[in-house]
Design goal:
283 residues; alpha/beta; 3 domains
Length: 283
């Protein structure tokens, strides 16, 4: 009996064969003239298709012609690759992005890198693929700098060197859960931007960060955790465009987050307690 991995490969090979057949089935119609078939193949080659792994791909005319020839020669089975050859191939650009993310912050794990790529591209290879690439390229041995700007007992040398961002789960207001997004300057402890909202999402994060950037300037680093809003592609793109180095904390290692945690304790003890009554409605 085949093992689970063999069965998975076999199923994926069949899915690849079906993907290929669905692409060429119209162009492979034997009633088409050579000119009609060529026009269809050119049209297919000019389009972006979604492969069995959910990735956008382009197929060359040469490849499409080869698939049509193989199908005419031996039918559907000729389009099905060997199960051993059907393992998903990760595009080089995705591997390059994973390597760049590791070099940017050596403390990032393969799981973190996968989450960031997934948020940025809508698809990411599995964690083992990323881990194997890190080992193969010697990146797994990268050491975290002895005194990074975002870990341990540290204070930034000046304003706008480092902002720390986080989200506080607030009280129930009018029967709805509230959240506070906030960004603190590490040097001055000033609240650079904040926003209360009824959802822990990118819209509320942006509502806190955009005014802060407009009025306070551009920080060198932004240090956040791995919540879904903080790995969203909007934040990644915004930081990339502004030249901000976005750093995510390691799960289970919240070093460097003490200042914003103290701020949230103050919010809870001196603000939330005044607006949230015991019945979960505004005080």
């Amino acid at each position: 009996m085949p093992g689970q991995e063999d069965q998975t490969r076999l199923e994926r090979a069949q899915a690849i064969g079906l993907f290929r057949y669905m692409l060429i089935r119209e162009a492979a119609d034997p009633t088409l003239s050579r000119r009609q078939r060529g026009a269809l193949v050119r049209q297919l080659a000019s389009m972006t298709h979604i492969d069995p792994d959910g990735r956008p791909v382009r197929i060359t005319r040469w490849t499409l012609d080869r698939w049509i020839y193989e199908w005419k020669r031996a039918g559907f089975e000729a389009l099905v690759p060997s199960p051993r050859q059907s393992r998903p191939r990760t595009p080089q650009e995705i591997l390059d992005l994973a390597a760049a993310l590791k070099k940017e912050n050596p403390s990032r794990s393969a799981a973190q890198i996968r989450r960031i790529i997934g948020a940025q591209r809508g698809w990411a290879p599995d964690e083992r693929t990323i881990q194997r690439m890190l080992v193969r390229e010697g990146l797994n041995a990268l050491n975290v700098p002895a005194a990074p700007a975002v870990f341990g007992r540290f204070e930034a040398d000046g304003p706008n060197e480092l902002w720390t961002g986080d989200a506080l789960h607030g009280p129930m207001v009018a029967g709805r859960k509230t959240y506070l997004f906030a960004f603190l300057d590490d040097h001055s402890r000033a609240v650079m931007g904040h926003r209360w909202g009824f959802a822990e999402d990118t819209v509320r994060l942006a509502a806190a960060l955009r005014p802060a950037l407009a009025s306070r300037g551009i920080p060198r680093y932004i240090y956040v955790d791995n919540g879904s809003a903080f790995v969203d592609s909007w934040l990644l793109r915004a930081c990339a465009k502004l030249g901000i180095k976005l750093v995510h904390s390691t799960p289970g290692r919240p070093q460097g987050r003490g200042k914003i945690e103290r701020f949230f304790r103050t919010v809870n003890s001196e603000f939330v307690v005044e607006i949230a009554s015991g019945d979960g409605k505004p005080g």
